[in-house]
Amino acid sequence: MTDHRIMIVDDHPVVREGYRRLIDLQPGLQIVAEAEDARSAYARFREAMPDAVVMDVTLPGASGIEAIRHIRQYDDAAKIVVFTMHQGSAFALKAIEAGAAGYVTKSSAPDTLIKAIFGVLKGRTMISPDVIEAIAQDRIAGSGTRLRDLSTRQTEILRLLASGWPVERIAEALSISLKTVRNNHYHIKSVLGLETDAQMVWFAMEAGLVQGPREEDA
């Protein structure tokens, strides 16, 4: 039986080494490609065409959510498992909306990730129990509802703006025009009912999109 071909995406070499040790030891799985940011993830995916991708959402520059969206535009059958420190519902819901089939936190047991990989390979949606609980709690509390009104692209622009990125850098990172960034900047504040950029930053922090007002490389 041929091994399933896996690509891993994380900006930390030590973490990628941990992926290799865990995944390559599993019968039926083989790592065939690696990437360290969203742009190289898209390029490596097109080169290797793996059966599944294991990706962090916190990457230098554009986030893993942007990488998911881009990869799924190229191949709508791509199977992607997010493996991240983010336990909040905001990233999880946006990752799934962008096309991720799995979402597992790094605080989960190692076998949770392996089960998620095999699950998405079989066409299932796999979410770790702690994330399911966070989503349920947010639904009950009614929090995060305004964030759901933003598209995945708008959520990414919000995250980068709140991290202190200038519009020129955002436009370059996302391969869009300055006008598109500025229009979305205005629209994001309008949808969220925010009047100032400071309010936008605080909203992003409370939603778990950024850890601080100037998170340069979230």
Automatic annotation (TrEMBL):
The molecular function terms in GO held by this entry are:
DNA binding
Q: Which domain of life is it from?
A: Bacteria
Gene Ontology process terms (BP): phosphorelay signal transduction system; regulation of DNA-templated transcription
UniProtKB keywords: DNA-binding, Phosphoprotein
Q: Does the keyword Phosphoprotein apply?
A: yes
Response regulatory domain mapped to chain residues: 5-121
Where is the HTH luxR-type domain positioned along the sequence?
143-208
Per the database entry, which stretches of residues form a coiled coil?
none
**PANTHER family to which the protein is assigned, alphabetical:** TWO-COMPONENT RESPONSE REGULATOR
Give the protein's recorded name: DNA-binding response regulator
Query: From which source organism is this entry?
Result: Thalassococcus profundi
